[in-house]
């Protein structure tokens, strides 16, 4: 006995006990005993071919539903006449299609009805494909994204070339940013009791005159959102909202985006905010703007950055050991003793370059002394004292996408939509709002 399997596409009338209106054979193949893992399943190319055939039939049926072949001219109310058919392209996640559309025109005024999918829906690409392109474009280089699409589609498709992915990523990123602004006007959340705000920045190589441009990022979340990860790795945040910007606009966009993120997390007049930063003025500017929206705030110089600065200062062994001991005073929030010890180090140093390094760190401590707290006490009390407890915003929003390859260069215009999209993807509400974002993308 020879056994086969068959896949058929049927259109039927549900109201008439399932009477079949039309039927088309999609696939008819022999069932062969598999001998290895290659012939156990259908195979990737056959799966794509199956999707292609089913989708061709679905699109053909749906096109007949919305194409009015006996309509009136919207301009002069004269009956439209048929004048041939046209083939229109439509692109979905795995497959490309050509749809046949009846062409209609008005003999009196010359009006022509839309004769392409793009003319009817303002796009020839499915929402799911746009989402996939934008998500991959935000997470990987555009050329790597093109290769990923080719791997899963088993073919090189024009719709998925790196330039098309770039354009989609930028348009979806811009639409996401605009939608977030619109949402902030109608937002209402119950006041959060406490929020944690991290603000940081990272430099990205640029195509512009400067060697690099600074991208600003922020993340805001509730303390209870911190969940432990594997030993030796940073904790994860189960609920958060992120903001980012690389605009040269006196920090207006990053401040606005951070305020919107804070509102989504429930900031209000009864909320206490613990804000952490690396000590840069531009970061504190963002934090100070948030003060207007909360009841109280504790500003903390991020211990992670203090520790990294000490570690990265290169000095002779005896001076380095003394500098490391200064951390003991800073860990306990004792800036007075830390300052005294650093001033002593300046006198002990013999080389100008060593003196300059110590003086620079001394200025850093003096400029931020109001934000240097008793980190030891906060740790014992289970309170946040460093951004290193949770995943790095700079790493997740900037470095993973923008600095992974040495030759990668960015313009502000090209980078900002990518950052907006990455901020949306890494925030809570991307899955909720991606359809609205894609529909509003150019």
Would you kindly provide a written description of the structure presented here, covering whatever features stand out?
The protein is α+β, with helices and mostly antiparallel strands and 442 residues long. The chain has two domains: 4-121, no CATH class; 190-432, no CATH class. The chain is 44% helix and 19% strand. It is built from 15 helices and eleven strands. The chain has helices spanning 44-66, 117-121, 127-139, 142-153, 162-184, 252-264, 281-290, 303-312, 317-331, 335-348, 352-367, 375-380, 393-402, 412-425, 430-440; strands spanning 4-13, 19-30, 81-91, 96-105, 194-205, 212-221, 226-227, 236-237, 241-245, 272-277, 296-301. The strands form four sheets. A five-stranded mixed beta sheet has the order 9-6-5-10-11. It has a two-stranded antiparallel ribbon with strand order 1-2. β1 (4-13) and β2 (19-30) form a beta hairpin. α13 (393-402) packs across α14. The longest helix has 23 residues, at 44-66. The two termini are 57 Å apart.
Brief account:
The protein is an alpha+beta fold and 442 residues long.
Rg from Cα = 30 Å
- Termini Cα gap: 57 Å
Q: What is the total number of structural domains?
A: 2
Largest sheet features: 5 strands, mixed
Task: Using the alpha-carbon principal axes, give the shape.
Answer: elongated
Proportion in β-strands: 15-25%
Structural class: alpha+beta
Give the helix level as a range of percent: 40-55%
Strand order of the main beta sheet, please? 9-6-5-10-11
Overall pLDDT score: 89
Poorly predicted regions are: none
Number of strands: 11
Note the total helix count. 15
Order of helices and strands: EEHEEHHHHEEEEEHEHEHHHHHHHH
């Amino acid at each position: 006995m020879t056994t086969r399997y068959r896949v058929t596409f049927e259109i039927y009338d549900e109201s008439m006990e399932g009477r079949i209106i039309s039927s088309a054979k999609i696939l008819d193949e022999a069932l062969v005993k598999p001998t290895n893992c290659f012939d156990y399943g259908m195979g990737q190319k056959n799966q794509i071919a199956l999707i292609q055939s089913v989708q061709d039939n679905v699109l053909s049926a749906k096109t007949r539903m919305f194409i009015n072949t006996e309509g009136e001219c919207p301009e002069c109310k004269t009956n439209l006449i048929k004048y041939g058919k046209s083939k229109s392209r439509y692109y979905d996640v795995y497959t490309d299609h050509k749809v046949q559309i009846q062409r209609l025109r008005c003999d009196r005024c010359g009006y022509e009805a839309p004769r392409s999918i793009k003319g009817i829906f303002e796009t020839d690409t499915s929402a799911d494909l746009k989402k996939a392109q934008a998500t991959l474009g935000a997470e990987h280089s555009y050329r790597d994204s093109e290769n990923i699409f080719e791997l899963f589609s088993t073919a090189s498709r024009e719709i998925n070339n790196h330039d098309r992915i770039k354009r989609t990523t930028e348009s979806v990123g811009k639409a996401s940013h605009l939608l977030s602004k619109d949402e902030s006007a109608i937002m209402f959340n119950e006041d959060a009791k406490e929020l944690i705000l991290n603000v940081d920045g990272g430099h990205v190589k640029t195509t512009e005159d400067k060697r690099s441009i600074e991208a600003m990022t922020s993340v805001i979340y509730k303390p209870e959102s911190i969940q432990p990860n594997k030993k030796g790795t940073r904790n994860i945040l189960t609920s958060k909202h992120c903001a980012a910007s690389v605009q040269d606009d006196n920090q207006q966009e990053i401040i606005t985006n951070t305020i919107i993120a804070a509102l989504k997390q429930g900031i209000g007049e009864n909320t206490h905010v613990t804000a952490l930063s690396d000590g840069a003025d531009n970061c504190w500017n963002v934090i100070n703007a948030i003060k207007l929206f909360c009841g109280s705030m504790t500003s903390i110089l991020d211990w992670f950055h203090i520790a990294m600065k000490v570690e990265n200062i290169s000095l002779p062994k005896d001076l380095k050991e003394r500098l490391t001991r200064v951390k003991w005073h800073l860990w306990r929030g004792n800036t007075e003793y830390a300052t005294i010890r650093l001033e002593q180090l300046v006198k002990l140093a013999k080389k100008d370059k060593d003196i300059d390094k110590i003086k620079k760190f001394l200025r850093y401590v003096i400029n931020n002394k109001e934000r240097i707290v008793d980190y030891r006490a906060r740790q014992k009390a289970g309170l946040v004292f460093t951004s290193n407890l949770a995943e790095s915003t700079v790493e997740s929003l900037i470095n993973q996408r923008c600095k992974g390859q040495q030759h990668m260069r960015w313009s502000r215009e090209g980078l900002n939509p990518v950052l907006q999209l990455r901020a949306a993807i890494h925030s809570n509400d991307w899955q909720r709002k991606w359809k609205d974002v894609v529909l509003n993308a150019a």
